[in-house]
C-alpha cells in the first residue's frame, strides 16, 4: 500500500485555503473496468482513477469527450485539476465537465489503448436559470484561410470575438490535441486569441478549432492555416494567361507559341471567330487559364480548329 499527500489550492467563502488530498494506492491485480455513469452536483469534486485499468501508470493520460463529441486531454493546472500517478482529482465541477472520460496509455505489451472509465453528469443548481438563446457565438477577426510564409519573422494572431451568456470557457484545439498555451511557439493571450510565433514549420499547417462553452451549450468553429515553403511568388509552370481583344461574344484561338508563357498580344491572335467554340461550350472572351496537363490536348484542338476555320474562310 502506498500513501501520497498533495496540497491543492482552493477557495472557501472567498478565502484562499489548501485542500489536503490523500491518495491511497493498493497493489492489486489490474482488470478491465466497465464504464460507470456518475452524477455529481455543481461545485463538488470527483476522483477518476486510471490505476484500475490495464495500463502502465508512467504513460497514462486522461481524455474528456464532451456531449458535443469534442475530445481533448485533461491537463493538470495546479488550481482545479491535479494528477497523482494515475489518479486525477477535479475540483469545483460545472456542467462543462459533463461527458465521457477515458484513460489512454500503454498496456503490458506496449500497445497504446484507450479505455472508457466513466460518464459524468454534472447537475446545475436549481436556482440557476438559463436565458434562452444565449449559447456562445464565435466570430473570427481573420480570413478563413491564413497563409504564412515559412520564413516570416512575425507573430500571427488568430483573433476571435465570443458573445453569449457569461462566463464563457474558451479552448483552442489542433486535431485532437488541446493548445494549452504552454507550448514553446503557441500561446493564448488575454483576449483568448491564439498566437503563433516563429520559427514556423510545415507541421504548423492544418485546421485549428476554437471551442467556446457556457452553461447553455458549446459552440465550435475552425480556421485553416497554410505554411508556404517560400516567400517568393512564382508563376506556376504551364499556366498561361490569355487576354482577348475582342467583343464579349467573340472567341480567340491562339497559336502554339503562346504556350511558352508569353503575354498575349494582337500579333499572337490567329483567328477571331464569332459564335465559335473551343470545346463545344461557348466560352465568352475574357481571361482564360490553361493548365499544364491540358496544354498538349488544347494545342492539338487549336490546330484542328484553325485548319477548319481557314478552309471555311477560303484561306486554306
Automatic annotation (TrEMBL):
**Annotated transmembrane regions:** 269-291
Which residues, if any, are the signal sequence? 1-31
Q: InterPro entries, per this entry?
A: Ig-like_dom_sf
Spell out the CDD domains in the cross-references. Answer: Ig
Keywords for this entry? Answer: Membrane, Signal, Transmembrane, Transmembrane helix
Name of the protein in its database record: Ig-like domain-containing protein
Taxon lineage: Eukaryota, Metazoa, Cnidaria, Anthozoa, Hexacorallia
Amino acid at each position: 500500500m502506498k500513501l501520497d499527500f498533495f496540497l491543492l489550492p482552493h477557495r472557501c467563502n472567498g478565502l484562499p485555503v489548501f485542500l489536503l488530498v490523500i491518495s491511497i494506492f493498493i497493489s492489486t491485480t489490474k482488470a478491465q473496468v466497465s464504464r460507470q455513469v456518475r452524477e455529481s452536483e455543481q461545485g463538488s469534486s470527483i476522483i477518476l482513477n486510471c490505476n484500475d485499468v490495464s495500463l502502465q501508470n508512467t504513460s497514462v493520460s486522461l481524455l474528456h469527450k464532451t456531449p458535443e463529441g469534442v475530445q481533448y486531454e485533461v491537463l493538470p493546472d495546479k488550481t482545479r485539476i491535479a494528477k497523482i500517478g494515475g489518479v486525477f482529482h477535479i475540483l469545483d465541477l460545472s456542467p462543462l465537465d459533463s461527458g465521457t472520460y477515458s484513460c489512454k496509455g500503454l498496456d503490458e505489451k506496449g500497445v497504446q489503448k484507450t479505455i472508457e472509465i466513466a460518464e459524468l453528469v454534472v447537475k446545475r443548481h436549481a436556482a440557476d436559470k438559463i436565458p434562452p438563446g444565449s449559447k456562445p457565438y464565435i466570430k473570427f477577426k481573420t480570413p478563413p484561410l491564413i497563409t504564412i510564409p515559412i520564413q516570416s519573422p512575425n507573430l500571427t494572431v488568430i483573433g476571435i470575438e465570443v458573445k453569449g451568456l457569461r462566463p464563457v470557457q474558451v479552448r483552442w484545439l489542433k486535431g485532437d490535441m488541446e493548445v494549452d498555451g504552454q507550448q514553446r511557439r503557441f500561446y493564448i493571450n488575454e483576449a483568448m486569441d491564439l498566437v503563433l510565433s516563429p520559427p514556423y514549420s510545415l507541421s504548423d499547417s492544418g485546421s485549428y478549432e476554437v471551442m467556446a462553452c457556457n452553461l447553455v451549450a458549446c459552440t465550435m468553429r475552425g480556421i485553416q492555416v497554410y505554411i508556404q515553403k517560400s516567400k517568393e511568388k512564382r508563376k506556376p509552370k504551364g499556366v498561361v494567361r490569355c487576354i482577348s481583344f475582342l467583343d464579349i461574344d467573340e472567341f480567340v484561338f491562339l497559336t502554339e507559341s503562346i504556350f511558352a508563357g508569353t503575354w498575349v498580344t494582337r500579333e499572337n491572335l490567329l483567328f477571331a471567330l464569332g459564335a465559335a467554340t473551343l470545346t463545344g461550350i461557348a466560352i465568352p472572351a475574357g481571361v482564360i487559364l490553361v493548365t499544364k496537363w491540358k496544354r498538349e490536348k488544347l494545342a492539338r484542338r487549336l490546330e484542328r480548329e484553325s485548319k477548319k476555320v481557314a478552309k471555311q474562310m477560303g484561306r486554306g
